[in-house]
Amino acid sequence: MEKKEIESRIKKVVAHVLKLDEEEITQDANFIFDLGADSMQSMLLIAAFEEEFDIEMDVEKAQEVQTIGGAVDFIAEYL
Amino acid sequence: MNHRGELHRKNLHTVFYPRSVAVIGTNKVRGSVPGDIFVNILQSGFQGIIYPVSPREKSIGGLKAYKYVIDIPDEVDLGVIVFPSSVCKLALEQCGQKGIKSVIIISAGFREVGEKGLAKEKELLEIAEQYGISFIGPNCLGVINTDPISRLNASFARKYPAEGNIAFLSQSGALCTAVLDYARAKNIGFSKFVSFGNKADISEIELLYYLMDDPKTKVILLYLEEISDGPGLMRAARDVIMKSHKPVLILKSGRTEEGASAAASHTGSLAGKDEICDAAFKQAGIIRCEDIEEMFNIAIAFVYQPYPEWKRVAIVTNAGGPGVLTTDAVVKEGLELARFSEKTTLSLKKSLPTTANIKNPVDVIGDARADRYVAAISAVFKDENVAGVFVILTPQSMTDIDSIAKEIARVADQFDKPVYTSFMGEADVASGIKILERNNIPHYILPESMCKPFHTVYNFNRFIHNEEPEVFVSGHPPNLVAKELLEKAIEENRKYLNEYDASLVLEAYRLPVVEKRMATSAGEAGKLAAEMGFPVVLKVISDDVFHKFDVGGVVLNISSETEAEESFRTITESVKEKMPGAKIRGVQVSKQIQNGVEVILGIKKDPSFGSVIMFGFGGIFVEIFRDVSFRVAPVGKSTALQMIREIKSSELLSGVRGTQLRDVDAIAEAIVKLSFLAIDCPQIKELDINPLIVLEEGRGCYVADAKIILEN
């Protein structure tokens, strides 16, 4: 899968979970600092990414991912 | 104080007195740390402007929220970061860009969670250094300033404390909330309340210096779990105590420890971390407390009442038993019961019933009402033999508790002497205790508990008025001979210096070492012994032998040339047999000093305080009774004399029961010289001079044996 497509699908998931407009979500946006995700939302995002891409991620490592761009690279490794 | 220290002192003012605060990473969730901190600042009546900074919210608590701190159009004095640890550096970076110089980082998840957390903490420090920021935390409860011109509660404590004159600093956040609750119940107020957490940037040292100049603070309480800069803490505390006359009380956890017994030298095994901590605090004038209760018991005595000028107290009680118990405690504490003047006795006689006891302790009898208490307290207060008054009350059916409490406060206000109280019981006396507390009369649940605070305040008063700055006269620049011997041994991977080399190091610092020479043959040993004069001692010298006695490497009381030759052979054969691999450099022939008293001196390097000097008596005094004293180097002569005087067996040097007066002055000089050796030679991990033989007054002392264990 192309990284551009991964990014687009990630942004959709993030917008849905965090209840944001997709336009607000940039590639270098930090989940916590820029998008305001709290710890519960971070866990929800991990679950939502797994469902979206039909993958099972290492949760501990997934929690270390901080930005949209980082999530793209991280998820790409599972695809 | 270094550059960062200076910066912190400047920036700390805006930690406590900001004109505006940004709470960075806050939210609307009550019961969460980010949410509650914002609400606490809002509800404490903060006198400045508050800016919520939240990536998601448009407004919080009716105030416009900003996505980033850099979006705030106005100047911001203080940033309070409540984001998770993973993004604190982004928040701190933006604080730097915004020009904020004072920051509190509440967030946890740093060094307390391990290596990764420590790395994050280092990143914060780098950013702080880049932008000239000073920060408190991370991993802390926050900061409270009750001064009405600020009224800042940048913490997630449940309650805002009352205004007072006690500053409380704590490394533990959880303890802070417990202390706030405890103090609230006892009507104790605070000037400043700081939880400094991991002290990654601002530590207790800078906070002490800040509080030294804080007019709202009269007493400083400090809870510490770890001392990272012992000498810095000692300097800061001493500066505060001597310059501002504010007492510094420290509760230091971790009194017990494992491992001291594994040390290689006597000094190493005796100088546990806690003993060193005790010595260092004493040296700096710090009052060390056993627990929170004792800390506040002492603090209220300092902050609410005048300091006693001397040690004699009067006890006024309506119950004989508690009066006697308190008398016992007074004597045990080292205080004295005042002997009343004739005028006082007459006055008490006139105003009290004939059944009352008019001697100290004054028993106003169980049916006493407020008038009798007033008469007795006034009379003893006026007595010039009385330095302070302990008032005890037990609740009888006719005891007008509240009136007595009010009258104690009224009378105490007329005298410049301290009064402490103990209304014994709980439910019946509760309202009276509240009256006392509201009137700043220290109250103690048990009457015996009045003694230690009284004595502590008395000692502190003496300390600040009598303590003279220590004069350090080394007279010797760092000595090259000693340095070369130590460095050579380290290059050769030796773990310790043998006695011969250790003596050379000590001689280089002009410590008096007994005359000694090295013999490499039996004939030479005999000849050297004869030249020296008998009796002599022979000892094996080998870099491989640490415990000479264990391998038969020592012969004492040698009284002839032939005996010296034989001893040489005995020693070398014994060592060869018991330690076949040991390389023998020779046998040391030294003069045996007679009619001396044996004491021990030592050095131990402590990770928190640096080199520490030990003094004690030799033999069983050190082995069994652990009767030793410590001080952090350098040690001046007056401190050295204190070290000698404070051990229990020091009288053995002062000519008691027919013994001779010993040369205490020479011991003190040896301690001073040893302390300079400790400062100059960081290669020394531990050192024992055991024994130092002390002769009669004016005849000096001599190092008879020494060991140096090297740092590696």
TrEMBL record, chain A:
GO biological process: lipid A biosynthetic process
Lipid biosynthesis recorded as keyword: yes
Post-translational modification O-(pantetheine 4'-phosphoryl)serine, affected residues: S39
Recorded GO MF terms: acyl binding; acyl carrier activity; phosphopantetheine binding
Modification after translation (UniProt): 4'-phosphopantetheine is transferred from CoA to a specific serine of apo-ACP by acpS.
Carrier domain location: 4-79
PANTHER family, per database record: ACYL CARRIER PROTEIN, CARRIER DOMAIN-CONTAINING PROTEIN
Protein name: Acyl carrier protein
Gene behind this protein: acpP
TrEMBL record, chain B:
SMART domains documented for this protein: CoA_binding
Highest taxon of the lineage: Bacteria
SUPFAM superfamilies reported in the protein's UniProt record: Glutathione synthetase ATP-binding domain-like, NAD(P)-binding Rossmann-fold domains, Succinyl-CoA synthetase domains
Chain ranges of the ATP-grasp domain: 503-539
UniProt KW keywords: ATP-binding, Ligase, Nucleotide-binding
GO molecular function, one term: ATP binding
Matches recorded under Pfam families: ATP-grasp_5 (PF13549), CoA_binding_2 (PF13380), Ligase_CoA_2 (PF19045), Succ_CoA_lig (PF13607)
UniProt cross-references to InterPro entries, sorted A to Z: Acyl-CoA_Synth/Transferase, ATP-grasp, ATP_grasp_subdomain_1, CoA-bd, Ligase_CoA_dom, NAD(P)-bd_dom_sf, Succ_CoA_lig_flav_dom, Succinyl-CoA_synth-like
Membership in a protein family: In the N-terminal section; belongs to the acetate CoA ligase alpha subunit family.
Protein's UniProt name: CoA-binding protein
Species assigned in the record: Mariniphaga sediminis
